[in-house]
Amino acid sequence: MGSPAEGVPWDALADGYEPESSARQITGLFAPLREKLVVLVQRLQNSGHAPEPIFNDLELPVDRQHHFVRMVAERIGFDFNAGRLDQSVHPFCSGTHCHDVRMTTRFPGSLVDVLSSTMHESGHGMYAQGLPEAHLGTPMGDDVSLGIHES
């Protein structure tokens, strides 16, 4: 990381979330991804095929939505022996340690919204469940950074 004179105001704001990062580093990290995504989006837009909003229009009872997203969360790796899934107005994930992870999702909603928010929160949950139990209460048993947690 260069001197503060080489940076931009964002660098100072980012330190609380992603220590030692800089706008230059983040731009370098995401630039190759952006190039590929721009090409992919253009290709999709020029394909002549519009996506069907089938899942956006699908209405399922809350108990079926809950059952479905719970099954998906479990299949992608969330351990329900060390956590749970509940309903809330805004999805979130928290807990006290790797054996007690609590996540929520929003019901009712479109299946896409419920599924994507549950999968996102499951990612946070799996990160927390993967923290080393032997290091609970120490920096090694805690989140590295918000940037890592969100990725």
Description:
This protein is mainly α and 151 residues long. The chain has two domains: 42 residues; 97 residues, no CATH class. It contains six helices and three strands. A three-stranded mixed sheet has the order 1-3-2, with helices on one face.
What is the number of strand segments? 3
What global shape is seen? flat
Rounded to the nearest angstrom, the radius of gyration is 19 Å
Hey, roughly how much beta strand do the residues contain? 5-15%
What does the oligomeric state look like here?
single chain
Question: Keywords, please?
Answer:
151 residues, mainly alpha, 2 domains, flat
Short description:
The protein has 151 residues and is mainly alpha-helical.
Fold topology:
Elements: H1 9-14, H2 23-45, H3 54-57, H4 62-75, E1 83-87, E2 93-97, E3 100-105, H5 111-129, H6 146-150
Parallel strand pairs: 1-3
Antiparallel strand pairs: 2-3
